[in-house]
Structures are given as C-alpha cells and as structure tokens.
Write a sequence for this structure.
C-alpha cells in the first residue's frame, strides 16, 4: 500500500491557474495532474478558492478616512459633537481599522477554504497492487475496503458541504450516515455515486469506461455527468451500470460481486461455465473447459476462503472430472 500527500507547492499551482508559470513549472504541473485523479480535484479546489478570495487583493485600496466619513454621515453625526483628535490618536485609529479590515477579509477567506475543502488538509492517495488490498477508516467513520489494482484519493479532513472522494478500480464502502453531508464518489468516466449512509460496492472499468454499483444496504444514486442521461436510484439488492452513455438498473444477478472482500463464493444450481468464470476472477487464474458439454452441468456449493487446489479437488470429486495445470492456466476436462 502506498500512501502519500500531494507534493507540489500551492504557489506553483496558483501561478499555473493565472497563466504566470515558467515552462519548466508548467510541465511539472501537467505531469503531476496525470499521476492521480485526486490531483485534478485538488487543483479544482484551489481554483475555487482563488476565485472566491480575490477580495484579498483589494485590501490595500481600503480608504479608511473616506469610509469613516460615510459612516459618520449615515449615523447623522454633527461636527460640533465631535472632539478633535490628535495625530497620534488618528494614526492609531487608522492602524486598528486596517487590521480589523484585514481580519474580516481573512475570516472570509478561511470560510471559503474550509467550506470548499481546500483548507481541510492535504489530499491522500492510496494505490494497491496486484498482490495487496487495503482497508481504511475515514475521519467521518466511513469504512473503505479497497480491492487490488485500485486507486483511492480523499481529503485528510472533509469540508462542511460534502464528503467527496475519488475511486479508480474497485472498493466496498460502509458509509457513516450523515444526512447533512452527502458522501460522493467520483469515478473516471465522470459518474458520481452519492449516498447519505449505506453499504455498497463500486467497480470502475477502463475499456469501455464503465461504473458498476451493487447495493447491499440503504439507497444509492448513480449519477451521469451527462444531464440528458440523468441518474438512477438503487436500493438493496439492486445494481446500476453506467457505460457508453447508457445507464441501466436491475436486480443483482451476480451473487459473488463482493467475494473479493469476504472470501466467500456461493453457487446455487449454477452452470459450470458460470462457476469457472467466478473462480477465474476470484483466484486471478485462467481456467478453461476442454469439453464444451461440461459447461451445462450444474453445481450447488459454498467456497469459504479455500485454496484453489482445494476447490479443484472438490470439483473433481463432485462432478467426476479431472484437471491439469500448464503455463499458469488450468484446464478442466472429463476422461473418456
């Protein structure tokens, strides 16, 4: 498991947004953006912060004396009721006024930073390999189980508007319920998975760009980035698929969709063809049927965190078949 914070200077990113960056720094930013989906999110957050905090640049143009005259006029002050003040007092007043104005601006900027998430801490990125998975608990109590060959990015601390993360690959989520802060998962094909609190599996596929959601508990919205496609709401035992501008919803037809996390495979009167497909995916091994007629045989069994060798021996006994292993692939056949 690899976990790292964003490692590029905020000032360089700000210069990049303003178009005032050297060729070398510009290339560095472009390379950084391509390293992970969370990096683009961080740049977008900085862009929002920059846009909402431009008022800081106007601080030096504050004209205390003119503004004070306007305030006195609105309060209907009369000259005879105002006592003259010394230069020292006037200077002190100007200093205090400028400090107060600066504090107001800074408080406003801090509010923007916190609410838009950029001030909530660095972006954290976790990458898993072909050999390992990862489990983590986010600051809101949400549990994330990350499958092999996946990337997950999230802020150290969520802001006050949403709980937003990015996923490339596959993960199972147990989202801590918070009706005021929706939990949003961004996926590579532009889809968003939005919930308040529930348990579900999300799998993203590169070719073609696809997002698949299986719901174990609660209610989940699968939202397309294309407004014409819209969204679909999924409940327990339903699955949604967004692929090639096509959004569908159906009952879960894959009982073993979360077997990568539980280690349990369940088959109920399943064809050997379906059994082999699930075993190949679960054990990350190519398994083939030599005899075409074998694929129509049926099997009912439960596999609970067993080795592939144990499973093959069970199939051999129950189905009266045999198998051989060659070049990392397994061939199942029936003796004549």
């Amino acid at each position: 498991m690899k976990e790292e914070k964003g490692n590029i200077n905020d000032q360089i990113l700000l210069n990049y947004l303003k178009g005032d960056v050297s060729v070398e720094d510009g290339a560095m930013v472009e390379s950084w953006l391509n390293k992970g989906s969370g990096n683009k999110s961080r740049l977008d957050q900085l862009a929002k912060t920059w846009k909402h905090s431009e008022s800081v640049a106007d601080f030096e143009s504050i004209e205390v004396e003119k503004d004070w005259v306007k305030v006195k006029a609105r309060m209907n002050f009369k000259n005879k009721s105002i006592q003259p003040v010394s230069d020292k007092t006037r200077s002190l007043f100007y200093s205090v006024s400028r400090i107060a104005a600066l504090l107001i601006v800074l408080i406003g900027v801090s509010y923007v930073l916190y609410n838009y998430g950029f001030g909530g801490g660095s972006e954290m990125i976790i990458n898993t390999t072909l050999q390992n998975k990862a489990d983590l608990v986010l600051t809101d109590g949400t549990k994330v189980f990350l499958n092999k060959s996946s990337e997950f990015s999230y802020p150290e601390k969520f802001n006050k508007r949403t709980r937003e993360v990015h996923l490339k690959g596959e993960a199972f989520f147990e989202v801590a319920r918070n009706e005021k802060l929706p939990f949003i998962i961004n996926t590579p094909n532009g889809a968003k998975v939005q919930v308040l609190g529930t348990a579900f599996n999300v799998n993203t596929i590169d070719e073609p760009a696809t997002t698949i959601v299986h719901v174990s508990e609660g209610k989940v919205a699968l939202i397309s980035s294309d407004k014409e496609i819209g969204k679909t709401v999924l409940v327990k035992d339903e699955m949604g698929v967004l692929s090639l501008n096509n959004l569908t919803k159906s009952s879960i037809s894959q009982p073993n969709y979360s077997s990568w996390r539980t280690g349990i495979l369940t088959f109920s009167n399943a064809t050997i063809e379906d059994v082999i497909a699930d075993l190949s995916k679960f054990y990350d091994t190519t398994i083939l049927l030599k005899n075409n007629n074998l694929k129509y045989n049926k099997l009912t069994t439960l596999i609970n965190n067993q080795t592939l060798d144990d499973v093959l021996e069970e199939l051999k006994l129950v189905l009266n078949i045999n198998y051989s292993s060659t070049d990392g692939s397994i061939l199942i056949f029936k003796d004549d």
Remarks:
- The helical segments are 10-18, 23-33, 37-52, 64-74, 87-116, 259-262, 272-283, 308-319.
